[in-house]
Amino acid sequence: MTSIGTGYDLSNSVFSPDGRNFQVEYAMKAVENGGTSIGIKCKDGVVLAVEKIINSKLLVPGKNKRIQTVDRHIGVVYSGLLPDGRHFVNRARDEAQSFKSIYKNSISVPHLMDRLGIYVQNYTCYNSVRPFGIVSIVGGIDDNGPHLYMIEPSGSCWGYSGAATGKGRQLAKSELEKLNYEELEIKEAVKLAAKIIHLAHEDNKDKDYELEISWVSKEFTKGRHEFVPDDLLEEAKKFAEEDDDEEEEEEEEGDEMQE
Amino acid sequence: MNGIKVDINHLKKGEVNLGTSIMAVKFQDGVILGADSRTTTGSYIANRVTDKLTQIHDTIYCCRSGSAADTQAVADMVKYYLQIYAAQLPPNETPTTEIAANVFQEICYNNKDNLTAGIICAGYDKKNGGSVYSIPIGGSIHKQDYAIAGSGSTFIYGWCNENFKQGMQKDECVDFIKTALSEAIKWDGSSGGVIRMVILTEKGVERLIFYPDEYQK
Amino acid sequence: MAGLNFENYQRNSYLSTKGFATPRATSTGTTIVGCKFPGGVVIAADTRATSGPIVADKNCEKLHRLAPKIWCAGAGTAADTEMVTQLIASNLELHALSQNREPRVITALTMLKQHLFKYQGHLGAYLICAGVDPTGAHLLSVQAHGSTDIGKYQSLGSGSLAAMAVLETNFREDLTKEEAIKLCADAIEAGIWNDLGSGSNVDVCVMEVGKDAELYRNYLTPNVRSQKARSYKFAPGTTAILRESVRDILDVEETVVSFDQMEVDTEA
Fold first, then answer.
1. Residue of C4, C147, C161 with shortest CB distance to B72
2. Do B188 and C8 make contact, defined as CB atoms within 8 angstroms?
3. Are the beta carbons of C74 and C62 closer than 8 angstroms?
């Protein structure tokens, strides 16, 4: 950490001499330790998935949802400081509602991302605030089809075919790069999402996790953002785990290739 | 005598009024708007060649009736809203007529106590083709196949209802509007002058003008 | 709203029985016109200012400068036309300075209409706004409530009907500059002769593309006071003195009294 002791990392609104904002970079550190979140945009919809680390056996399975809905057609998942994420989603909902109150139409995903990008960026400009400790993946369907975006603490925001963040992001990204997004159908994508989260959990095996998957699809959810039905979730979980044996073998091969 | 209630404050003293005949009609390739050109202050014709068809965006127009000042101010506001909205749209995309009409409705409803504005918003967009929205005085909104408004429209409700056809050809639709407006002008003292039309299609905007010696036959 | 409406007849007869007579029309008393010609635009105004039935000023100026090449003629409440015109002229100059461009007529018009609309007609300014800018020559008008009109020729004010009659008969698209000036002056004269609220002289302003604006103050003076046939001066002493009483002027003396410095106890 070159920044420590220099003083350039203490305030938000100050650049270091080589043009970096350390507070923003520290915010990314908060994200890197959170549970893995991914998003997949396929030809007929968007899938969001998250690896929910179980911190206590007393937590009720199936409660404490991590994926949230912004508007009927848009969902968000994020890794990092969870309360920051809830504040971010609140703002996203406000933006979607304010748009609707003027134009009587749902906001388009790119337009919402424009607004949220500006909002998040604002938290990097003043020393009375700190940047968001989250990276959010936002997915939805509008008149122009499916969209998937990822937004970082700096406020930068890009459109993706497949996006991953959190602890297992490197592994997830390399898996996502293998997919053919032109051909991919949403039911297949749900299974793959489960599998990628499962793989990404490998490095963190000492802790248990719960899988949460949501989707937006014209065909299956009438363009609405919903959690996948229980039977599909079970099927996806089974798909993710039944490959375990093969995967281990493959993994060994993979490891060898890396070396 | 107790029973009489006259709304003497309906128009402020000396206010310029668009006692008007306006309409907009969907047809095969898009939509056509039509209007007379008379603007009055009391019994004086303040302008005999007014343009009541106002551009809101590339292929979205509105017909204005009521107070000239109010409708111009509202149209200017909507135009501004849509410029900002369009700037945030992806390249090569334009706002839909529905969006424009909803903004009109929002402004007309929120300021209903201070406005005398009856507006027809019509336009062409790639998503919906031609569409027509009527926003009458209270600030409600009505999606229609065709809309008529203004003081002269009362005389042509029946005729329009009888003669409107779905999916007309362009020439047929121009004739429909020309005949309807010439009747409205004939019977309404507050309407007159030339008939202006704007044709909105995929190809863009086309303007037409008809002089009294033609449309009066 | 359509057709003839007799509701007010009942109301008016009811009101007159209660002692409220039908209000008399009050004239704002002005004739102003404007007319375009290829390559430029002309505006003109009469110079009578009235307050009720009294001629308040026989040679007032109703042509206002918004910018060097944008002028406007004002009818309605004199104070309002003057102040609103000065305000917009000021803002227009600041705008032109900040944008580093010559101001446009449409900009002036938009500023005027938004200001007037804000005041909902309580500012009684009716203006014909004309000028040349980088986009050409323009002729526009604004009414007190904030509505605007575009036209090749326009008239406003109580004499506008007389002026419009002249404009409607003599306007052509291909007027020369001189013909356009004559047409405007004729239209104003029609107002001067036929409208009680208008009178005195004709002011004209010509704005041509690529040239400086020209103001012709008192372009026509059809109402010069003629020499009286006789002198009506009376010799001193014509009026007889019946009684004389002289009183002393009361002297008021003012002196400045100074006091010594007040004693203040600063110990406490």
1. C147
2. no
3. yes
With 60 as the cut, is the pLDDT of residue A253 above it? no
What percent of chain A lies above the pLDDT cut of 90?
Answer: 77
For chains B and A, tell me whether 3 or more CB atom pairs sit within 8 A of each other: yes
Q: Which helix (H) or strand (E) holds A145?
A: strand A145-151
Q: For position A207, what pLDDT does the model report?
A: 87
Q: What global pTM score does this model have?
A: 0.78
- Asked if residue A30 lies in contact with residue A81, where contact means CB atoms within 8 angstroms, the answer is yes
Whether residue B209 contacts residue B201, with contact meaning beta carbons closer than 8 Å, is answered with no
B97 catalytic residue (yes or no): no
- Indicate the average pLDDT of chain A: 90
Q: Which residue of B has its CA nearest to A108?
A: B89
Q: What angle separates helix A230-242 from helix A244-258, to the nearest 10 degrees? A: 50
Of the pLDDT bands very low, low, confident and very high (cuts 50, 70, 90), residue B191 is very high
Least Cα distance to B58 among B75, B33, B79 occurs for B79
- Cα dist. B149→A5, B64, B162, B174, B199 in Å? 73, 9, 17, 17, 18
How many residue pairs bridge chain A and chain B with CB atoms within 8 Å of each other?
Answer: 22
B73/C146 CB distance under 8 A: yes
Residue whose C-alpha is closest to residue A109's, from A80, A151, A79: A151
In the predicted structure, residue A127 carries a pLDDT above the cut 60: yes
Check C147 against B19: CB less than 8 A apart.
no
Q: Do B12 and C145 touch (CB under 8 A)?
A: yes
pLDDT of B65-104, one tens digit each? Answer: 999 999 999 999 999 999 999 998 888 899 999 999 999 9
Active-site hit among B20, B39, B54, B201: B20
Tokens of A208: 């248990």
- Which pLDDT belongs to residue B6? 42
Of residues A103, A104, A110, nearest to B90 (C-beta): A110
- Provide, as residue numbers in chain A, all residues whose Cβ is less than 8 Å from the Cβ of B105: 104
Mean pLDDT for C125-152 is: 97
Q: Answer yes or no: do A103 and B88 touch at CB < 8 A.
A: no
Structural contact between residues C125 and C84, judged by C-beta atoms closer than 8 angstroms: yes
Nearest-CB residue to C151 (from B15, B47, B73): B47
Catalytic residue numbers of C? 30
CA–CA gap between residue A116 and residue A135 (Å, rounded): 12
Cα C217 to its chain centre, rounded Å, is 14
Tell me if chain B has a CB within 8 Å of the CB of C254: no
- CATH homologous superfamily of B22-214 equals Aminohydrolase, N-terminal nucleophile (Ntn) domain (3.60.20.10)
Residue B12, pLDDT score: 57
Candidates 3.40.640.10, 3.30.1050.10, 3.60.20.10, 3.30.450.20; correct CATH number of A22-243?
3.60.20.10
Interchain proximity B106–A102, CB inside 8 Å: yes
Structure tokens at A254: 């993979």
Which residue in A120, A124, A127, A134 sits closest to A10, CA to CA?
A127
**Cα separation, B29 vs B115, whole angstroms:** 34
**Of the partner residues B88, B89, B99, the one whose CB lies closest to the CB of residue A105:** B99
Chains that touch B (3 or more CB pairs under 8 A): A, C
Whether residue B6 and residue C3 make contact (CB cut-off 8 A), yes or no, is: no
Contacts of C10 in chain B (CB under 8 A): 4
Of the pLDDT bands very low, low, confident and very high (cuts 50, 70, 90), residue A80 is: very high
What are the structural domains of chain C? Answer: 26-216 (3.60.20.10)
How far apart, in whole angstroms, are the C-alpha atoms of residue A146 and residue A168? 25
Q: Which residues of A touch B106 (CB under 8 A)?
A: 101-102, 104
- pLDDT of A152-208, one tens digit each? 999 999 999 999 999 999 999 999 999 999 999 999 999 999 999 999 998 788 889
